[in-house]
Each structure stands twice: as structure tokens, then as C-alpha cells.
Write a structure and sequence with these properties.
outer membrane lipoprotein receptor (LolB), chain A, 12 strands, 4 helices, single chain, 12-stranded mixed β-sheet, alpha+beta, about 240 residues
């Protein structure tokens, strides 16, 4: 049981690191869902952002500035989304994440087990919660911190350090996006940033091993309750040796 749990935690952390890298920076911090709600359901008060009407860039019209688009994300206090990560070998991993201030939550099914990763950057706490077992395991906060990093608003801002090239605009999943490309540590990164809210919609990371593709869908903004980032009452908390 313990060996399987450590394997699940390792997979969960790797997924988080991939996503934090894909949103435009070196790994730093993660996100979160409603604590007592089934996976895939939204927190009370959340409203889905309806698809935008497809837009086209008028001939001769300059694309919006990347910094101006990213500024729009700064007013977002909380949001959630679903994430699909496809790695070069063809394997696809899905998860859902919630962010609110310094708190984050990841939720997904790994090794056939529903797993939740909760982190509180301010309190320096991180837990892996397994609903089916009614157990939570305290993990090394530094590992969770590398996985989650900072909220995506800050992550995608860091790509400005790499002098990204603006390629134009493109509609992805009904959302008009600014498309940018840049190189970092031998990797070529292409990112689609939602014009309306300044959040990543898609990221492609090309490495010597192949291309990692990340898709961010079902984005919901605001209305996430604090209970989303809390363990349910009565959960047994244990320690994982060596983590």
C-alpha cells in the first residue's frame, strides 16, 4: 500500500511540474477543487465562462501587446480549470486544478486511485488526500512547492524574461488567443494566451525527446469557497516516510 501511494504521489508531482513549466516558467507552485465535492464538479458560486465568438485579426492590424494581455489576469482572485497533458510517448494525463491566493488544489485519478493534492504556500503545508481511504498524507512541502509554483498569472509573466516573439492571434476552443513563442534552456515553447483574461489556453513544449502538449479547458473564474482547499473533518493524517 505504501509503495503504491509513493508512486501515486510521484506521478501527481510530475504532472504538476509539467504544467507549471508549460505555463511559462521554471517550476514553482500549484492549484485546487471543492473539498467535499465529487471530482469534476464546480464549487458553489462558480460560473462557467461562456465561449467567446471567434474573432479574426483584421488585415494590417497589429496584434495586442503581450504585457497588456497578461495584465488582465492580475485582477483574477480565484479560478479553476481542467488540464490535459500529452507527453511525447503518447500518454495523456488529465487533472483539475483550483487556485485562490496562496492556496491550490489538484485533483485527478492516478494508478486507478482518486487523489487530491492540497497546498498552502503561506502556511508551508501540503497534503495528499485519498477520499476512498479517508486518509491524508503530509508530504515534504518543498516537493509540493516545486509542483505548484506560483499562480499561473505569475508563471506566464515570467516568460517575458525570454523575449517572446508574438506570432499573431488564433481562436482556440472558441477563445481568441495571442500566440507567442520563445526559447528556454534548449526548449522551444509556444503558448496561446486568452485575450480576454490573460490566462494560458494551450502550451506546446518541444524538446529533444519530443513535444509536450498542455490544454487548459472549462476555465471558471471566481466564486471558489475557502473550503475547497481544506481537508474534510475527520480525515486521518499520516506521514509518508522519506517525503
Amino acid at each position: 500500500m505504501m509503495r503504491k501511494l509513493i508512486r501515486i504521489v510521484a506521478v501527481l508531482l510530475v504532472v504538476g511540474i509539467l504544467v507549471s513549466v508549460g505555463t511559462g516558467c521554471a517550476p514553482k507552485a500549484p492549484t485546487a477543487p471543492p473539498a467535499q465535492e465529487p471530482a469534476g464538479e464546480e464549487g458553489p458560486g462558480e460560473e462557467a465562462i461562456p465561449p467567446e465568438a471567434p474573432g479574426e485579426q483584421a488585415p494590417g492590424e497589429e496584434a495586442p501587446s503581450l504585457s497588456g494581455v497578461l495584465d488582465k489576469a492580475q485582477g483574477i482572485s480565484s479560478y479553476s480549470c481542467e488540464i490535459e497533458v500529452t507527453i511525447p510517448q503518447g500518454e495523456t494525463i488529465t487533472a483539475k486544478t483550483w487556485w485562490k491566493g496562496d492556496k491550490a488544489r489538484w485533483e485527478g485519478s492516478f494508478e486507478g486511485q482518486d487523489v487530491v493534492l492540497l497546498s498552502d504556500l503561506a502556511a508551508h503545508e501540503a497534503f495528499v488526500y485519498m477520499p476512498a481511504e479517508n486518509m491524508a498524507f503530509r508530504i515534504d512541502y518543498s516537493s509540493a512547492e516545486e509542483t505548484v509554483g506560483e499562480p499561473p498569472q505569475g508563471q506566464i509573466e515570467e516568460m517575458m524574461e525570454y523575449q517572446p516573439e508574438i506570432l499573431g492571434t488564433e481562436v482556440i476552443d472558441g477563445k481568441e488567443c495571442l500566440v507567442a513563442s520563445y526559447s528556454r534552456a534548449g526548449e522551444q515553447i509556444k503558448i496561446w494566451v486568452w485575450l480576454e483574461h490573460g490566462l494560458p489556453i494551450r502550451t506546446e513544449i518541444t524538446t529533444a525527446e519530443g513535444t509536450i502538449v498542455m490544454k487548459f479547458t472549462n476555465i471558471q473564474i471566481g466564486g471558489i469557497p475557502d473550503s475547497t482547499f481544506e481537508l474534510p473533518a475527520g480525515v486521518e493524517i499520516m506521514e509518508i516516510p522519506g517525503m
